[in-house]
Amino acid sequence: MNKVDKKIFEMAKNERIEVPKTYEEKVQKILDELPENQVEGKHKLKIRLTFVIAAILVLIMSIAVGATINVISKRMNDMSKKEKKQLVVDMDKSNAEKDSYSRKLTDSEWERMDVLREQYEKEGRFPEGKLSVVDNEGDAIEGQITFVTTTRTYVIPKEEMTDEQILQIIDYGYKEDYSLRQEHRGTQENYDENVSNEQLAENDKKIINRNEMTKEEVIELAAEYAKNIYDIDTSKYDVEANVNEDSGYEIHFQKNNSIIVNIDAKNKKLEYIHNDTYENENTDQKVDENLFKECAKSVKKNIVEEAKIADVDSKYHYEYTLTENKKVQAGIMSYYFEKSNGEVVQIRFNCKEKKIIDVAIYTEKQYKTKSKIREKQYKEIGLKRVSVEIN
Where are the membrane-spanning stretches (predicted)? Predict the structure, then answer.
């Protein structure tokens, strides 16, 4: 996303993730029960080939109960419906049985891919950017990681890939798998007409008992946050509400833009909100400390007075990443409010539009871990992170 800052909520660290031996059997059972008109054979093949990744993703999304939000779950859910649909469409463009690379990977690249995949899963180490996607290999951009949909080939540089480039490949694979599973879930929900009203009522009861809020109440609360933070009335938006085992609900408001809201239904509060309107086509911004401090006043008004998700006397600061040309990378600022209970509220801000992109709430542990990971990332790619205290 990266969108690096936006998508890295931290899960509980040091969790040992092991894929159950019976998982493949479960996947096969699901595949065998699927009507052929729901998922094409090549989609089934894709699921089989990637069941380990899917298993890990499912497990990661179900552990760390009590954490503010799951890092990978948030990253996947930040994708718009359009992006997920496009990923599934692109899968249909090839009959290739497996992914391939334009050259043989070195031993070092394979080793680093294993390490980086683990960091992606357990530490929320995501790429700064994303790979290019084309239908024909002739359109691949030299020096940039490019995925060719018709052959399912990753076109990679002749020289050794950087960590950033390997992470882009890992990230694309995760997003593909997630998008396909979402499509499967949607068709299953639409296809499953044999569920009785009694079963639906019982399921709703379980959800209410676990989360302490009804789906309608959660949607209403999510809409309230959208209004207070973005000044957007979502009453005419299409709404999709998904139950999440560890974080309550994920609400998707979709119209000309997409707003995603994660609500901790048990504690009746916001975990994360993202508006994709102010993220696209951002350009590097000239450093202007006076502008940044002025914008801080607007951010504080939104977060403290209107959304009420930070304290009036919260200590806060802002950060930005400098490019080689001494500009603010992508024109995005990050404002951080430190709450009295140890939580940290992060607000990513579009300098050009002077609008909030998203808001994420971290536990103290998550924030410290995130900061260490980010510091390491920027050091590796040679970027400088600037931090300025406001009060």
Answer: 49-72
